[in-house]
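Encoded backbone
================
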Amino acid sequence: MTSAAEMPASSGSTFTSHHDLKHTQESDPLSTKTGVYVAVHGHFYQPPRENPYLDAIERQPSAAPFHDWNERIHWECYRPNAFARVLNDRGEVVGIVNNYEYMSFNIGPTLMSWLERHDVEVYQRILEADAKSARRLQGHGNAIAQVYNHIIMPLANERDKYTQIRWGVADFRSRFGRDPEGMWLAETAVDYATLEALVAEGIRFIILAPSQAQRCRPFATADDPQPEWHEVGGSQIDPTRPYRCYLPHHQTTNPPYIDIFFYDGPISRDMGFSDVVYNSHHFAGRIGAAVRGDHRPAQLISVATDGETFGHHKKGTEKTLAYAFIAEFPDHGWTVTNFAHYLSLNPPAWEVELKPVTAWSCAHGVDRWQDDCGCGGEGGVWHQKWRRPLRNALNWLRDQLIEVYEEYGKQIFTDPWQARDEYIEVIRDRSPANVSRFLNRHQTHKLTAAEQVDALRLLEMQRHALLMFTSCGWFFEEISRPEGTQILRYAARALELAGDVAGVQLEADFVKRLGLAPSNVDIFMHGGEVYRQQVLTAQISFQQVAAHYAITSLFAHHKTPETRNSAIVPDHTGKHPHPYQKRVYCYTANELDYQLQRMGSLTLVVGHLQLVSEVTWESEHLVFAVLHLGGWDFHCCIQPFSGRRDYSELKEKLFIALQQASAAHTILVMTQLFREEAFNLQDLFAEERHRIMQLLSQETLARLNQLYTQTYRDNYGVIMAFHRDGLAVPQELQVAAEIALGHRCMMILRSLEQDITEPQTSWNHLVELEAIATEAKHLRCRLNIPEGRQILEQLIMRSLWQLLHDPQDSGDADIQRLEKLIDVGYQLNLGISLHRSQELYFSCLHNQIASLCLITGNHKQDSDQCAHLLKLGQKLAVDVSAIFNQLT
């Protein structure tokens, strides 16, 4: 990176040590009330992508090579901002900055849940950043809350407004260990009813776009008891100060209020749509242009944009941000702050009135989420006439679900709506003990098992009724996009749960209403068809979960068939004491019986399974039978468990049928016994289906690898001749070379993985990998082995950790072997990333590595080891010059 994070020569700033960085970071005058303050706010958010039935995100091919878009954006944005590099002019790391420690931010609760589950290291860095910022900024942390699932608040009914705020606050408190001072409104959509709810729930401030203000005036004083209002409806409001917004219709001497910051519109727009954030010097210059020269004691330059701008939308710009925070802004004498801290130093001296209903991304109020207003059309030919019918259909469904919830909820909960508001406690922790505590606290009487299930179904129905209003469903140009489909899937789940509890049939009326929402895509025609084609087909039943378990059990390694061949005998209570248990997404599968027999190429498994939903506590006892005919052919049947005698008879008939070694006869008997829909490989959930497809392909791929390897060996001279003469190698031969070398490389990498702790053996593997890299370079072969890249990255990280964990016990040979491992990783041209290894080395550089080097004295052996450790840092592109200079 030549401009994003390197220290520009024109700035005159040069960092030579960690202590210099620390001094720069801690030199801000944070307790004064004067000067220029800068707040950069990042709104970090992803639309919820979880399958409503599995509580997990399934693979999204459009995000390749990553599993899904959350993972892709995480590696491009969320993680880089937690470990943002500051580089010198040689591209070496001189600092690693946690940007969350210096920027104001909100992170959507559903995204935070994903981070907590998938990268706890980054999740903890975000929590630590808030705590550190609070210590630096007199108790005011950088994090603010967000309305829970990004609904457009002015379009929500009053009860939903309060639940969204209460869930957002409770989620925030459970993570950051404190109450939020501010809250981010989805799309900054606001009206006075929303402000009423925010004030009632203790929110002190919000952040809005300058276009949302109508007029403002200074507070009354003795000299000016009736100050004049200034009309600022055209975005003319001064964003360098906070404002107080008093709630109307409160006839008191001290009416309730909320404080509002308006971000600087032009700079924020430039951050998203120009190149200003690609260079920290230019970024600071753009901020500086907004500083008012009117001699006011203090002013705040505040900007706000999508957090994903830094690293995802604009690659590498997290480095710009890091250097701006720790160098550029302090060099200008500006104090890096957040809104709560600035408010504590400089409370509002002006009041503001807002336009009635507004949002930052719609010029027509909030019509982008309910009308064909043109916003989001990107200037194309597609209409958004579907928006109003979609909104109407979901509003109708919400109202129908309210009736169900109140009628059945009052029989279970002392206060159904309070129970809903506090259900966030269960969403955050679905452990049986916590759910039981929640139900005990809210129940009208001691609930039976069936009533507990209904209680959780009702609450989940309401959760999905809120999720179906997620703003993303209306944001773009077409109802059939993934965002629109996703909110309809939430609606479908809510419908299903309502039917389970109350027996109501609402789906037909709902689909009829969706039929009034015209699609721009011919194959869908309208929302009703989107629902039929993309929503109904994604619904999942207990039978499908059981079929998934049954088929995948043939490929499980948790038990050998011999250990699973007998039924588990119930104890005196009639319960099975220790069934084999496995988690299938958000279901617990208790395997109560499992028997497997093989006959020639046929494999038959029959089992008894209890499935329990971890979300609603629903459970079903099911019987399954799977016939594997070999290869890709499976025939699976599921039916309810009707008793031990029936189950024993069914097993006996199936295994007798198998004895005839006829697939057709066995399938016929299965069909007669089950009389239910059959399942096959295609019915598995995508993640597991892909895994099994790979397993089933291994034998074929092994044969092909042998064939390609032999072809490569037989034609090596021919391929070399083509290269010597500068001719294009025939595709068949070039492909054979790439596959053969890739296969050979993977074999050695797997051996290296096993032998990494054996010095001589691992060195031999490295030499062989080096030879493969040389051969691939000569033949211009590109090794396409992502798994090999992952193995190398993990081996480098593992070796480095062992080396740094106790460098006193590590010899030069260990360091040299690690250096060669890194070299080989680059030579193979697999695109390895050493970011985590770099972070690990940097975290140890200024304490244990520096300490080791400084106490070596005149001992040549120790001095040599220190030199090797520092050269290793150079190989990892970490600036170690300061320690080198101290040694010399």
Q: What stands out?
A: Residues 695-833 form one domain. The chain has four domains: 9-220+230-354, 369-538, 542-568+577-684, 695-833. The radius of gyration is 32 Å.
